[in-house]
Amino acid sequence: MEFGCGTYGGAFLESGFWLRKTEILDKIRDMEIVKRLSCFIIMIGIGYYSIYYNPISIVSFVTNSYGNFFMMISGALCISGAVFCFTYEYLNKKNVITDVLSFWGKSSIYFMAFNYMIRNFAYTICEKLGLSIGINLIIELMMLSLVSFVILSCKKEISKFKRLKKLHA
User: Fold this and answer.
1) Closest by Cα among 71, 77, 79 to 55
2) Are 126 and 143 a contacting pair, CB within 8 Å?
3) Crossing angle, helix 108-129 and helix 96-106, to 10 degrees?
4) pTM score, two decimals?
5) How many DSSP H helices and E strands does the chain contain?
6) How far apart, in whole angstroms, are the C-alpha atoms of residue 152 and residue 6?
7) In this structure, how many other beta carbons lie within 10 angstroms of the beta carbon of residue 78?
8) CA distance 92 to 29
9) Is 110 a residue whose pLDDT tops 80?
């Protein structure tokens, strides 16, 4: 059975909403370190199994190549959960890295919306200037961050304007 890219994107978004609603990540975060480490190892195991035994060499949203739907979703969610378990101790402290990661997390929908267009633009810039692929990824991430910042800033200003309009009405 073949699903479109939007269906898979929607499934990932819905799974994120479900995780937030059920507060599973909060429960994992509040676990003591030994339980969190056990959870990390189990998630890595399930994620590795799901990714390694998925009957496709690489998942590609561009070419609609996903392999087994359940294995792709479980692999992605388990590896994401394992990263969360592992990085919680570091990311719990407020610093520049957590601010940047938080911004990227809040902007992920804009990253998905503009990724293809910006990737092609960044690739063209690097090709014309003779820069390497690594620089292309950095330029792409910077441009996605800039677009997200502009959109989020505009949304904030629009909501301020709407509040002021309601006050004066």
Assistant:
1) 71
2) no
3) 100
4) 0.50
5) 7, 0
6) 23
7) 20
8) 9
9) no
- Measure the CA–CA gap between 91 and 97, rounded to whole angstroms: 8
Q: Give the chain's largest Cα–Cα span.
A: 61
Please give the residue that has the higher pLDDT: either 169 or 155.
155
Rounded to the nearest 5°, which phi and psi values hold at 54? -65, 130
| pLDDT one-digit tens code per residue, 21-66 | 887 767 776 777 778 788 888 989 998 998 888 888 777 766 777 7
Query: Is the distance from CB of 55 to CB of 104 less than 8 angstroms?
Result: no
Residue 109 structure tokens? 């929908």
DSSP type of residue 64 = T
Contact criterion met (CB below 8 Å) for 29 and 22: no
Within 10 angstroms of residue 146's Cβ, the number of other Cβ atoms is 11
More confident of the two residues 3 and 143: 143
Half-sphere exposure of 105 (CA within 13 A, CB side): 10
d(CA 71, CA 145): 31
Q: In the predicted model, is pLDDT for residue 122 greater than 70?
A: yes
If you count them, how many residues does the chain have?
169
DSSP letters, 21-50, are HHTHHHHHHTS-HHHHHHHHHHHHHHHHHH
Predicted local distance difference test score (pLDDT) of residue 90: 64
pLDDT for 46:
92
